[in-house]
Amino acid sequence: MLPSERENWRGRFGAYALDRHGALRSLNTRSHFVKTLFRLIVLFFIQVIALGGSYQQSSSASVDNNLMVYLPLVQKSAPDEIEYYLDEMNFARMTCITSNLVNLYGPRHHNFKRFFIDDKCTIGGQSYDNHNLIRASMYVFNGFEELGYNPGKEFVPEWHDSFNVVAQKIGSVYPNTFIEISAHVDSVDTTPGASDNAGSVAAMIEIARVLKDYQNRHSLRFITFVGEENHLKGSRHHAERIVARGETIKAGLVMDGIGWSEIAPDHMNCLWDNGNAETRHISNLFNSVRLEYDIDIEWRLCDLLQSNQWSDNYAYWEHGLPAVLSIGGQPYADPNYHSCADTMSSIDMQNVYLAALENLAVTLKLDAEETQPDAYQAGESTAPALPEGEGISH
Ligand SMILES: [Zn+2]
Q1: Centroid of ligand 1 to alpha carbon of 214 (angstroms)
Q2: In angstroms, what is the span from residue 254 Cα to ligand 1's centroid?
Q3: How many angstroms separate the Cα of 70 from the Cα of each of 78, 83, 240, 288, 387?
Q4: Most exposed of 223, 282, 350, 368 (fewest Cβ within 10 Å)?
């Protein structure tokens, strides 16, 4: 309970509650001293109950039964701000954005100026001026503008005129320390890319919508990366620019492939960190928020540090910056992975929605923390070594 509410409650109690319900009526004939003393005793009991925060009727048998009528006036706690923002997340909106990215722009690849018109990857007839990757990025860019952001294009050198889209909100307490929420918008050329990775883009945009008027303490960035499927081109360029500008990254929350669960119909979000203290702290927050806010999704760590397949989290790790990947079920085990069958009819939008709720709650938990200046500035690489002779191939 906040002090102001306690004061407010006291005011209500003193103003009319004791008199209005007549609990002290039998004391009216007694002296003013006795009345005052009795009120003090009652206030003492109620104060103890209020501060204890665990009031139950059965536990206050020593209080006069007539007083029970007042006790429900005690407000147990303030509404949780995180709960409020979680309730604002809109499942239908996420589904709509995912569907647009799949059906209007898939495959989101620099070799395509047309889209797949059916689940057999038949290419549609109309050709566009820009390739699908640029068109999809402009869809995100325009979406941010409609939400009231002032997005920017982060052009990626020598990558088909394509660009990351970045929208940001500068923080009131830590303006140079960023929490970045991202998803890659590109796909390989063999898939409409619903779970990989339209669903995650929709999740990121919905989080940006919900947090538009949130008073953030740390700076927030919402990003779509391009070229993830081509050696993390977009995220690597972005990470280099973070380092060049001397920014501090509190957390990179990356979403990729969250529309699949290996335990369907139950839901899963597997967290991929690099095992150091900063990233494990973030992974653990994913576990605590799902329990605290009843987000019905399983939690586990992905234990695949030796894999040669990575997502944009790896670009952060290369510069010693903390990032954690949400990747839904077992990475790369999705039978529709990079195939023509990664469509709206196979993606698990409920898994997308639940993983998005987690990422939103973790963002707000991190924002509420105090941050040491320069705590997570770029330094030694924390990227696990790749196997000899192998490159990133996700
Ligand atoms: Zn992906």
Answers
A1: 29
A2: 10
A3: 19, 28, 61, 35, 68
A4: 368
Q: Name the DSSP letter for residue 212.
A: T
Q: pTM of the prediction?
A: 0.78
Distance 221 CA to ligand 1 centre (A): 19
CB 190 within 8 A of CB 169: no
Token pair, residue 61, equals 């048998």
Are the C-beta atoms of 35 and 41 separated by less than 8 Å? no
Contacts of 138 by beta carbon, 8 Å cutoff, 6+ apart: 130
- Give residue limits of the domains in the chain: 3-73, 81-368
Q: Which residues are within 5 Å of ligand 1 (an ion), measured at CB?
A: 196-197, 256
Summarize the confidence of residues 36-42 as an average pLDDT.
59
User: Which pLDDT does position 263 carry in this prediction?
Assistant: 94
d(CA 309, CA 305): 9
pLDDT computed for residue 24 by the predictor? 37
Q: Is the CATH code 3.40.630.10 the one for domain 81-368?
A: yes
Gap from CA of 394 to ligand 1 centroid (Å)? 7
Reported as a pLDDT band with limits 50, 70 and 90, residue 333 is confident
* Ligand 1 center–CA 284 separation, angstroms: 23
pLDDT at 208 exceeding the cut of 50: yes
229 CA from centroid of ligand 1 (Å): 7
